[in-house]
Amino acid sequence: MHPDFWHERWQMGQIGFHEGKPNTDLVAGWPGLALAASARVLVPLCGKTHDMAWLRAQGHSVVGVELSAVASEAFFREHDLTPDVTPRGPYTVWSVPGLEIWQGDVFDLPTDGSFDAIWDRAATVALPPDLRRRYAATLARALKPGGTMLLCVFDYPQAERAGPPFAVPPEEVEALYAASFEITRLARPADAADEKEKTRLGVSRASTDLYRLTRAG
Questions:
Q1: Which residue, 3, 11, 114, 130, is the most exposed by fewest CB within 10 angstroms?
Q2: Binning pLDDT at 50, 70 and 90, where does residue 15 land?
Q3: What's the whole-model pTM score?
């Protein structure tokens, strides 16, 4: 999507993708990654998600990437944090100890493999098909060999609605990530949240799928 689309969504408060608490799949699935507390974790297209505060509370050094200054400011305000705001390369960086939001374009991420892990809940599904492959390659370059990504995507009949969020079925996950990652689909029970997503999206069926991706060496 064009950046103006997301800036307008934040300006208008049209953020139905935002959850008011840490994501349940993150809380349940993250311990299974067995990461060191000191791990550096990337949260792409982060908005003002509470997931960043939860990850920071686990001891991780957290970096969110977000286009919108509205979202960046809201995160720190809502968590009673006063960030330093400084330019750094292509980004404006909002920072407190243990957590930064890099305000800018996710495609400007460094390619030095400096992250130990990635949490992607609403990023892959936010991007149209022509940007997803570029996005997947960007994450592969940002993650160190052997690093881990926890990926949460939606699957529904794409013909029944226009995204975002877009449907990312298992074959799409394979096409996007198999070249750089070992992919493991994680078990998660169908729950009330899936029924809620079906209603919210206005489709005949919807599911949330969770994957662990391990960066090839």
A1: 130
A2: low
A3: 0.92
